[in-house]
Structures are given as C-alpha cells and as structure tokens.
Design a protein that fits this description.
With 201 residues, this protein is mainly α. It is built from 10 helices and no strands. The longest helix is centred in the first third of the chain and has 23 residues, at 23-45. It holds the Pfam family Sigma70_r4_2.
C-alpha cells in the first residue's frame, strides 16, 4: 500500500525514514512530488523526454542526499532548489533570455513565505485554469487525462482510440498554448518564479 505524506508531520516522518535509507519512504515521496516536477520541466523544455529525465535526475539527487534529509524542515523548498538547478542544466547552452531568467530566478529567496505563496499560487492557478479551458476539446481532454488523471500517453491513446504520436503532439501543442497564454499575463521575468511556485504547490 502506497504511503502519501498528507500532513507536514507525516512528511517529516517520511523524511526521517528516507534519511535512514527506507526505499518505501523514497517511493512515497517520489509519487507525492514527481508530477509537479514533471509539469514545470515540461512547461519550459517543451520536451516530455527531457522533462522525465529531469524528474529522474532530481530524485537521483534526493537519494544521494538522503542522509541529510532528517534536518530538512521545508522539503518543498529543498526539492524546489534541486529541480531548479536540474532545469537550468538543460538550459546551459540556451539564449540570453533564458540566461537572464536563470539569473533572476537564482536571486529569489530559497524559502517561501506561506501567505505570499498561497496568494501567488491562487493567481497562477486561475490563469492556468483559464488557459486549459481555452484549449480545443480533444486537446483539453488529452491534457486533463495526462495531468489530472495521471494517465500515460499509451493509456490515453488507448482510451481515446488514437495513436500515441497524436497524444504526444497534442500535449506539446497544449503546453505551448498554455505557456503563451501565461506569458501574456505574466509578462515580466518575475513570472517565471511565480509559475514555478504554483506548479510546486
């Protein structure tokens, strides 16, 4: 039976178990946070394979650092920093615009004020919801099955009687559209860090 850290106390207990080398605790933390990491990685790499690589890299680093986790009080922030660095590793040969985003992002505080975090979270969630609602019907259905239903591309293809290639292309178009819509509203570089926080809720 899979354990999920539904409360902060349970998460701290899992971190202590993970620090002691528990693979069961590691699996629980992986399933609790992998989708958030994948979402943000896919949004900015626009490549599902790269996004999945980032997820694996993040949790590989978590496992390597497991002995230090018992002292981590805010795992979300700890995970956020590792994910940020992994994403920027993908962007190391990118354009000056991405370099500027990195510089700004790296200056953001490593801790997130809870009240401010919730306010920004609500704003970004509303923008994301509006963008998803504007997708064409089939594209929106595919996006929802993947993001809300947690289905793989193969499972979506089977359920909708379409090819995996079609699912992959439709997801790429959906994410591209969402990214454009978000940037219309979050048009400053600060939006990058806000959006990351929203996806790591």
């Amino acid at each position: 039976m899979e354990i999920k850290p539904s409360t902060k106390e349970q998460e701290q207990l899992l971190l202590q178990q993970l620090a002691a080398g528990s693979e069961r605790a590691f699996t629980a933390m992986y399933h609790a946070h992998k989708q958030h990491i994948f979402d943000v990685a896919l949004l900015y790499t626009k490549n599902a394979d790269q996004a999945e690589e980032i997820v694996q890299e993040v949790f590989h680093k978590i496992w390597e650092k497991r002995e230090t986790l018992a002292d981590v009080l805010e795992f979300k922030n700890f995970l956020f920093i590792i994910a940020r660095n992994c994403i920027f590793n993908q962007f190391k040969k990118s354009s000056q615009e991405l370099a500027a985003q990195k510089d700004l992002f790296l200056t953001q505080t490593e801790t997130v004020d809870d009240t401010d975090y919730r306010l920004r979270n609500e704003q970004c969630e509303e923008l994301l919801h509006t963008a998803v609602a504007s997708l064409p019907p089939q594209r929106k259905r595919i996006y929802q099955l993947a993001k809300e239903g947690g289905l793989s591309y193969e499972e979506i293809a089977s359920q909708l009687s379409i090819s995996r290639f079609t699912v992959k292309n439709q997801m790429a178009e959906a994410l591209r559209f969402i990214r454009v819509q978000l940037h219309k509203h979050l048009h400053t570089l600060l939006a990058f860090s806000i959006l990351i926080c929203q996806l790591f809720r």
